[in-house]
Each structure stands twice: as C-alpha cells, then as structure tokens.
Amino acid sequence: MTFRTRVAVDAPAELVWRTMSDVTRWPEFTPTMTSVRLLDDEPFGAGSRVRVEQPGLPALDWMVTALTPGRSFVWETVAAGVTIAAGHVVEAAGRGGAAVELSITRRGLLAPVLALLTGARTRRYVRTEALSLKRRCEREPPG
C-alpha cells in the first residue's frame, strides 16, 4: 500500500536536496513535525537512526535504509507490526527548478488495517510536507 505526492519547486535541485536532507530542521517549516532528532553521532546518511515526533502520533525511530546523495533517501520504521518506508526524492526539472516526490509504503499483515485507521492523516501529512518543503525552498536564496 503506497501513497505518493509530487510537487514542482521553483528552486534549484541542490537547494531542495540540502533542505530536504537536513531533517532535524523540518519542524522549522512544516507543521506535521514536532521534533526530528538524530540518534547517532554520525552525519545523516545510510544507517542513520532518527526519532520523529509528529502531532497526534507516537514518536517513531526510523532508519535510513537507502541514500543517494543529492537525489534521494528512504527511511523505515516498524509500527504495530507494519513496516513503513518513507521515500524522499529530488529531481532536477526544467528552467533550473526541481521536482519532489514523497511516498509512504506500508507492508505487513496489518498494513490494510493501519491504512484504514491512519490513511487520511498520512495522505494529509505527506502532502503538507511536500508543500512546506516547496515553500521553504522557494523563499530561500540559492547557495
């Protein structure tokens, strides 16, 4: 079960990547994040563990399972017996802009139940996060 959202961003892909991969600063610009904290002393990258707190949801620890610098990362967590993978992708687009795709994929026996209980909120949060990233990047000067 996957939900995806895609937005065009009128900012260079490099700026969008820097903003998106600086995960501890997400609460500064998106209302769907209360706290994002690295749990390791290492820089954010493959294998990093991150604690995410969101309004109305329990705090979850995520692990970065894939990272392509400048382009994408995926982190995963397990909640209620369901593996949840969140994908974050930036692509260069025409006229110096970028495209962002965010996704949530749920796997496991109880994935349909979790989707039924939290699907609307998940879709709203993912869409809000994509639009918040867009606004943040379009306001910041490149460089």
Report on the structure:
This protein has 143 residues and is an alpha+beta fold. It has a single domain (2-139), classed as START domain (Alpha-D-Glucose-1,6-Bisphosphate, Chain A, domain 4), CATH 3.30.530. The protein is 27% helix and 38% strand. Strands 1-7-6-5-4-3-2 form a seven-stranded antiparallel β-sheet. A hairpin with a 6-residue loop joins strand 3 (49-53) and strand 4. Helix 1 (13-21) packs across helix 2 (111-139). The relative contact order is 0.26.
Low-confidence stretches: none
CATH hierarchy: architecture? 2-Layer Sandwich
How far apart are the termini? Answer: 38 Å
The counted number of beta strands is 7
- As an assembly, this protein is single chain
Strand content: 35-45%
Helix content: 25-40%
Rg value: 15 Å
Average pLDDT across residues? Answer: 94
Shape: globular
How many domains make up the coordinates?
1
The CATH first-level class comes to Alpha Beta
User: What class would the helix/strand composition place it in?
Assistant: alpha+beta
Count of separate DSSP helical elements: 2
